[in-house]
TrEMBL record:
It comes from the Bacteria. CDD domains: ParAB_family. The lineage of its organism: Bacteria, Pseudomonadati, Pseudomonadota, Alphaproteobacteria, Rhodobacterales. Pfam families: MipZ (PF09140). This is ATPase. Gene3D superfamilies: P-loop containing nucleotide triphosphate hydrolases (3.40.50.300). It comes from Allgaiera indica. InterPro entries: DNA_Partitioning_ATPase (IPR050678), MipZ (IPR015223), P-loop_NTPase (IPR027417).
Length: 269
């Protein structure tokens, strides 16, 4: 069976699609068969990222390793029972179509609570939650005391992940490996950054996730999207002399893939 990687966060602008694309492309470059789904049926940022990549590669005559992206199939509602959900069937059909021919399936969830996102989390072998490094986004994971910052309890999103874990346990599936990525880390060791790190470490022990450094804030990420490129493609498109920022960003991708601890994956790029 394919190993399913879900990238989820119920707040927008955390870097989910960038994370999806870099993980999917890195695995593809290492020779793994990678399927891809985007459950944000309106914006489709991940889907458009892959489409941009295919168009750029065709236009430039390049053979860029690319995940096998699929749109969710339409389902005949007349064939669905009265108590069944059409989105459950659409997601199940998409995963089934990819599973037999994929080593990994990347699923990008929308930045809001939806039925598709809820079901996808229950399918996750690995769950990646990108988080902007601030207490505004920390609120996604936990409620905190206003004056002291003390963690009071899990948020609605964390409770949803807990429910997904319970569903997997009832089905006899292995536990979700949950990784929270600290994205857009500042270069300086600011006081607030340390406070966020301390709060994450405390919460990780309470509700069971691993904390990992993600991607720093870099202009290049915005520049890569229109061509569907990732940091791993720069030399393929003629960029021979990488600047220090690009080299550091590529290392962040390596570190992320290593931190995911995916089965059968050895970082060799």
């Amino acid at each position: 069976m394919a190993h399913i990687i879900v990238v989820g966060n119920e707040k927008g602008g955390s870097g989910k699609s960038t994370t999806c694309m870099h993980v999917a492309t890195a695995l593809s470059r290492m020779g793994h068969r990678v399927g891809a789904l985007d459950l944000d049926l309106r914006q489709r940022s991940f889907g458009r990222y892959v489409e941009n990549r295919r168009a750029f590669a065709a236009r430039e005559g390049l053979d860029l390793p690319t995940p096998d992206y699929r749109d969710l199939p339409e389902i005949d509602r007349a064939k669905i029972g009265p108590n069944e959900n059409v989105y459950d069937h659409r997601l199940s059909a998409a995963v089934s179509a990819l599973e037999a021919q994929s080593d990994f399936i990347l699923i990008d969830c929308p930045g809001s609570h939806t039925r598709l996102s809820q079901v996808a989390h229950s399918l996750a072998d690995t769950l990646i939650t990108p988080l902007n490094d601030s207490f505004i986004d920390f609120d996604l994971l936990a409620r905190t005391e206003q004056q002291t910052g003390k963690v009071l309890g899990p948020s609605i999103y964390s409770e949803m992940v807990w429910s997904a874990r319970q569903l997997r346990a009832q089905a006899g599936l292995k536990p979700i490996d949950w990784i929270v990525l600290r994205n857009r880390l500042g270069a300086q060791q600011m006081h607030n950054k340390k406070k966020v790190g301390k709060a994450l470490d405390e919460l990780s022990r309470r509700i069971g996730f691993r904390v990992a450094p993600g991607f720093s804030e870099r202009v290049i990420f915005r520049e890569l999207f229109p061509r569907g490129l990732t940091l791993l493609d720069l030399r393929d498109v003629g960029v021979e002399n990488l600047n220090l920022s690009n080299i550091a960003a590529r290392q962040e991708v390596r570190d992320l893939i290593a931190e995911l601890r995916l089965p059968g994956v050895t970082v060799d790029f």
